[in-house]
Structure formats: structure tokens, C-alpha cells
Amino acid sequence: MHDYVQVALDRPTFVGAVPFRAEHVGTLIRPPVLVNARKRFQRGKLDAGSLRALEDHAVRRAVRFQEEVGIRGITDGGLRRADPHLDFLNALLREGGPGEPTRWIAQRPDPDSAALCVTGRVEHVAPIRLHDFAFLRSVTQAVPKVTMPSPTSLYTPGARDAISVTAYPCLDAFFDDVARAYRAELRALAGAGCRYVQMDDMRLASLADAALRESEDSGMDAPGAMLLRYVRLINAAISERPPSMMVSLRLCCGRVDGPWLRGKGFEGMTDALFGALDVDAYLLEYAGPDDFSGLRFVPHDKRVVLGIADAKDVTPAGRDDLKGRIERAAKFVPPERLGLSPRRGFSTSAGHSWAEQSAILRLVVSVASEVWGRV
Question: What is the pLDDT of residues 30-50, one digit of tens each?
């Protein structure tokens, strides 16, 4: 145990059966009619009520699809969002309370940038995912899963100048506000009965890249120091969740051609990440050849979902290979604490058709049933 972070030791090992043996990481292919509707809305050609009605219809279809496939942790597929993260983050970074004119104070410096420019204080003005969760819960008998960006999404290492010095002369206050806002959001969700939250994190995965770690200068944003700061931030953000709520951390590999985790597995994470974070489970995306050795640092009270299934596995030989990879991972984490998911979400994956999406998810459910006897 490290002295730089408090880890809650009185939480139950698992909350029910969550995460499930067969998981998906939330995003589904957006129907063309919904993509076009959102473009019309952004041009002022469609009102918010009409867009919401189209989203409701798309989410209902997505729920039926997931249930038919056999997925038990049901999401809205990210179908209500043009950007998987920016809507949530913008809701924490806006001026004006409910009913007042909104002026966003967060933006990307350029379309390809992963950083946000924060020009004001971070504040939880109103629940962000609550309305969406309530609808999702009303249209499924399975477990509704809420997805949101990790709190680390609001700060990019080396981008101190993207955080307003006027609003935050000290970065500690910025991270405190971020954690406070997330605690408020989780309280709202818990009060509505939500018990499964998935946080998507791209920052921690980037710190696992050995080349990046070697190239960074010393200082606050050096990989080692930044990793500890991120761990503290996530732990503070989820510290007040009730025992009935499971929080899983999805460690994203980024773009399909992203610069990190190419064959590096999660070796660079060490126990500073797997041991000190107070999340209940990890959803790990493997972008290259599967190196499971980093899983030896996962504590005995956490589950791991292996993001290793892809289109190439939808063959008899591929299925056998997939089972072999699960068996190799089980050398480091006992099989009863493992699960299976696709390598990544579908809305950002180039080239996937609806049929391929269905085939991959059905593969995940089928293999999980064969390996564990249940999903």
C-alpha cells in the first residue's frame, strides 16, 4: 500500500455480477439518420425536441440489439453524443446556471488536439447523465451502464497553459474542483438507482508507453509524477460513491493508429496504477500483440475485462486463439476475475459495418459462455 493515496478497504469485492463476463465498451455505430439529424440540429435546421425523439428511437433500437446479442450491461451506445467526451466535459465548464444563457468555456485548440482550453472554473451546475440514465433504465430489464470520460480528460500533461491562470493560479485547486464536480455527478446518478458506471481514460494509457516515459523531462508533468496526480484525482472523484455502485475504468488505446500501447501491453502501469486506484474493475484495450505480464500487478479484489476480441476472431480458428489468449492472461489474474470485450468501441473504429459489430459482440458473448459458463 502506498502512502500517497487513500484506498477504501471496506468496499465489497464485487457488486453483484458487474462487470459481466461478456462486456462491450459502450459505443455503437451511429445510424446514418441520427448522424444527419445531428448535423441538421447543429445548423439550426432541427429543434432539440425533434433530435431528442430521434435519439430516443435510436437508443431503444440499440438496447434491443444488445439484449438480443446477450450483453447484460446495457449502454445507450453513445448515440446521444456527437463527441464521446466533449459534451460531458463542457457541461462542467460553462458559465451561467440552469435556465441562463450558456457560454461554453472549454474548447479544443484545434480539431486534432486532445487538449481542452479551460478558461473558467469547473463546476457541476446540474446533473449531466441523469436524464439519459433515466430513459435507458426505462427501456431495459438488464443493468443500465452509464459511460463518461475519466476526470483525467480535463488536463493534458504539458498543457498547463491550457488552464486559465486567472481561474486557477494553483493547479491543485483545479484538480480539487474537477473531483468535486465528479462526486456531485455520481451522487445524482446513485440517487436515481445507477449502480454501474464506466469511466473512459486515455491519459493513463499514454503514460504506459515506455518511449514516452523516457522522453519526458522531470517536473510536475513527468510521467511518474503525472501518474500519481491522476491516481489521486480519480480516487478523489469516486471517493463518495455508495457501496452499491461499481465503477470500472476503461483504459483506452486511443486511435487505431495511436502512438501508444503498440505491443506494449500494460507493463508500464506497475502497481502505482493497478494497486493504488480505488476503481472496482479495469476494462483494458489491447491495441497490439497481447502482452499480459502487466496484469501481475492487479490486486486480488479487482476484476479485469480483456479487450482483445476483433473481427479477425470471428472464425473457428480465431475463436480458439481467443480462448488461448484468455488462458495466457489467466496466468496473471485468476480466470474467475476475468471477462472479455471487443478491443475498442465501434463508433470510432474505421471500417466496421453493423453486421461486423454484431458478429464481434456475439463472438464475445459466445466465447465468454464457453469459457466461464455464463456471461
Answer: 999 999 999 999 999 999 999
Give me the CATH topology for the region 32-372.
TIM Barrel (3.20.20)
Q: How many Cβ atoms sit within 10 Å of the Cβ of residue 229?
A: 19
Residue 49 CA, chain-centre distance (Å), reads 28
Using one digit for the tens of pLDDT, what is the confidence trace for 194-237? 999 999 998 887 775 544 555 555 567 777 788 889 999 999 99
C-alpha dist (Å) from residue 158 to 112, 163, 273: 16, 11, 20
Helix H, strand E, coil C: the string for 265-333 is: CCHHHHHHHHCCCCCCEEEEECCCCCCCHHHHHCCCCCEEEEEEECHHHCCHHHHHHHHHHHHHHCCCC
- Domain limits of the chain? 32-372
Q: Which residue has the cell 500517497?
A: 4
How far is it, in rounded angstroms, from Cα 162 to Cα 149? 18
Give the E-state strand segments of 73-171 in sequence order: 73-74, 94-95, 103-104, 106-107, 117-118, 143-144, 146-149
Contact 199, 250 (CB under 8 A): yes
Q: How many CB atoms lie within 10 A of CB 33?
A: 11
For 210, 218, 222, 334, the CA distances from 215, given in Å and listed in that order, are: 9, 10, 9, 35
The span from the CA of 191 to the CA of 137, in Å, is 13
User: Taking the complete model, does pTM exceed 0.70, yes or no?
Assistant: yes
Cis bond leading into 144, ω under 30°? no
Rounded CA gap, 260 and 159, in Å? 19
Nearest to 268 by CA among 256, 257, 253: 253
User: What backbone phi and psi angles, to 5 degrees, belong to 282?
Assistant: -120, 130
Q: C-alpha distances in angstroms, 53 versus 37, 46, 115, 130, 133?
A: 11, 11, 32, 17, 15
Q: Considering only CA atoms, which of 233, 247, 184, 178 is closest in space to residue 204?
A: 233
* Number of neighbours of residue 172 by Cβ within 10 angstroms: 9
C-alpha span between 348 and 246 (Å, rounded) = 25
Handedness of CA 94, 96, 102, 103 (dihedral sign): negative
Q: Which residues contact 176 (CB under 8 A, 6 or more apart)?
A: 236
